[in-house]
Design goal:
Blueprint: E1 14-19, H1 27-40, E2 45-50, H2 52-55, H3 62-78, E3 87-90, H4 96-105, H5 110-114, H6 117-123, H7 132-146, E4 152-154, H8 160-176, E5 187-189, H9 224-233, H10 252-265, H11 269-276, H12 281-307, H13 310-339
Parallel strand pairs: 1-2, 2-3, 4-5
Helix pairs in contact: 3-12, 3-13, 4-7, 4-13, 7-8, 9-12, 10-11, 10-12
Bound molecules: tryptophanyl-5'AMP (TYM).
C-alpha cells in the first residue's frame, strides 16, 4: 500500500502502534507486534502506547486496569523498547487522542463502521448490548495514529481493516477540509511469518487473549514447563513435514507451528522446511519448544523484573506521555483550526 493521493504527505516518517491492556499478552502479540516495534525504533521516530481507552470498550475491573497497563509497558521494555529512543505512554494520559477521535467520529461514515469485522466478532450475537465505544473503536484507533501523523503502523494481520479505515478517514478529512496532504495515509506493516499466529488448539482460529482455553496460547509470562507442555499438546496431523511451503496450505496446524518456528528464529517458513522436511512432529515439537523457551525465557524474566518496580514504570510512562502530548497537541490545534472552531 502506498499513498497515491494527488498530494501525498511529505512530513517525517513515524511509527505508531499499541496493545490493549485487556488480558495476558501472548505469542501472537509478541511476534505480530512487539518484535517489530523493537526493530523499528532504530529506523524511525517511534510512538508505542498502551491502549487503555480501547480496553474499556469491554468491562475492565478498575482495581486491575492500572496493573494490566503496567504489565503491557513491562512487556514493551522487556522485548527491547528503549524509553529514551521510543516514546512509550498510556493512551489515557494523552487526552488529544480522544479529542481527535471525536472529530473523526464526525468524518467517518456509519457504512464504513458497519463493515468492521472485529466489531461483529467482539459484539457476538447481542450487538445491541455492546458499548457504543466498541462500535466506534476503529475511529479512536485512527485518531491514535493520525494525532502523531504516523506513516507506519506495525500490527498483526487482524488490524489490517482498521488501517484501511484510518486511510479512508485521513483522505476524507484532507478532502473535506481542503487540506491536501495534511494527514498521511499510513501503511500497515504486517509482513513476516508472525503476522497471524494461530491457536495451538485450532489452526483456523487466531491465537487470542479471549480464547477460553489457556492451552490455545503461549502467554508471555508462561514458564518453560508451561511452554513445553502447550507445544507438546498442540494439535497437529500425522504427516511428516513437507519440503515445499505450498504443501502446508491445506494443513493449518502444521503451517502454524512452522510459522512460529520461523518467526521466533527470524527465518522464513521455507528455510525451516529445508531443515525439517521429512520429519514428523515427534521430532519437530521438542525443537520448537526449545527455541520458544530460549527466545521467550529472557523476555519473561525481564518483564517480571520491570513489573516488580511499578514506580519506575510509572515514571517512564509519565515522561513518555509528556513527550507524546507535545506532538499530539500541535496536530489537534491545527486540526481544530481547519475545522473552524472559535479560538483555534
Ligand atoms: P490487540 O491488543 O488486540 O493486539 C496487539 C497487537 O498484537 C497483534 N496480534 C496478533 N498478531 C499475530 N497473531 C495473533 N494471533 C495476534 N493477536 C494479536 C495485533 O494485530 C496488534 O498489532 N486495536 C488494537 C490496539 C490499537 C492500535 C491502535 C494498534 C489501538 N489503537 C493504533 C495500532 C495503532 C488491538 O486491539 O490490538
Amino acid at each position: 500500500m502506498t499513498d497515491d493521493s494527488p498530494h501525498p504527505y511529505s512530513g517525517p516518517r513515524r511509527v505508531l502502534s499499541g496493545v490493549q491492556p485487556s488480558g495476558a499478552l501472548h505469542l501472537g502479540n509478541y511476534l505480530g507486534a512487539l518484535v517489530k516495534f523493537t526493530r523499528l525504533q532504530h529506523e524511525m521516530d517511534t510512538f508505542i502506547f498502551v491502549a487503555d481507552l480501547h480496553a474499556i470498550t469491554a468491562w475492565q475491573d478498575p482495581a486491575k486496569l492500572a496493573g494490566q497497563t503496567r504489565e503491557i509497558a513491562a512487556a514493551y521494555l522487556a522485548s527491547g523498547l528503549d524509553p529514551e529512543t521510543a516514546t512509550i505512554f498510556p493512551q489515557s494520559m494523552v487526552p488529544e487522542h480522544a479529542e481527535l477521535g471525536w472529530i473523526f467520529n464526525c468524518v467517518a461514515r456509519l457504512g464504513w463502521l458497519d463493515r468492521m469485522t472485529q466489531f461483529k466478532e467482539k459484539s457476538g450475537k447481542h450487538k445491541e448490548r455492546a458499548s457504543v465505544g466498541l462500535y466506534t473503536y476503529p475511529v479512536l484507533q485512527a485518531a491514535d495514529i493520525l494525532v502523531y501523523k504516523a506513516t507506519h503502523v506495525p500490527v498483526g494481520e487482524d488490524q489490517r481493516q482498521h488501517l484501511e479505515l484510518t486511510r479512508d478517514i485521513a483522505a476524507k478529512f484532507n478532502h473535506d477540509f481542503g487540506a491536501p496532504g495534511f494527514f498521511p495515509l499510513p501503511d500497515a506493516l504486517t509482513e513476516g511469518p508472525g503476522a497471524r499466529v494461530m491457536s495451538l488448539r485450532d489452526g483456523q482460529a487466531k491465537m487470542s487473549k479471549s480464547d477460553p482455553s489457556d492451552l490455545s496460547r503461549i502467554n508471555l509470562l508462561d514458564d518453560a514447563d508451561a511452554i513445553s507442555q502447550k507445544i507438546r499438546k498442540a494439535r497437529t496431523d500425522p504427516e511428516p513435514l513437507p519440503d515445499d511451503p505450498e504443501a502446508l496450505k491445506a494443513r493449518p496446524e502444521a503451517a502454524n507451528l512452522v510459522g512460529i518456528y520461523a518467526a521466533l528464529g527470524g527465518r522464513s517458513s521455507a528455510e525451516v522446511l529445508a531443515e525439517f522436511a521429512g520429519q514428523g512432529f515427534g521430532a519437530f515439537k521438542p525443537k520448537l519448544a526449545e527455541l520458544a523457551v530460549e527466545t521467550l525465557g529472557p523476555v519473561t524474566e525481564r518483564m517480571r523484573r520491570y513489573m516488580a518496580d511499578p514506580a519506575e514504570i510509572d515514571r517512564i510512562l509519565t515522561a513518555g506521555a509528556q513527550r507524546a502530548r507535545a506532538i499530539a497537541a500541535v496536530t489537534v490545534a491545527e486540526t481544530k483550526r481547519r475545522v473552524g472552531f472559535v479560538g483555534a
